[in-house]
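Methods — Computational structure assignment.
A single polypeptide chain was analysed. Its primary sequence is given first, followed by the predicted tertiary structure written as structure tokens.
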Amino acid sequence: LEETITPRLVDAINACCQNQACGLICNIGAVSDQFDLNSYFGGANMPQYALVYKIFLTGLESVPLVRKTQAQFEKDAQSIIDSQKSFILFSQEALVMDVKKGVRFSRNRQLVFKDLPGSSHLD
């Protein structure tokens, strides 16, 4: 599946937001004959995700172009993916701690979400 889908995704990225994407990683889903992974990760009848892609963007301004890429990719791959069981998630990477480098947790380094009611940190 990865060999079929990845080239289509790369083509969509190159066509719509080539200068806005600076990296791509594909994680292939695990299958186990030893135990039920759905039970372990929280629920029966959940969709099985065969592939998870992480696209590294140059900045927040890249999001509209990634949405354009998503539309192009979904159109081109509609015969091999179920868009009802697929999703895209945007997140911003943040350093919490790095044991190897001796970087300890610091509340001052954490993101603050001013639009949320109450504290945006666990107290």
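Note: Residues 2-16 form the longest helix (15 residues).
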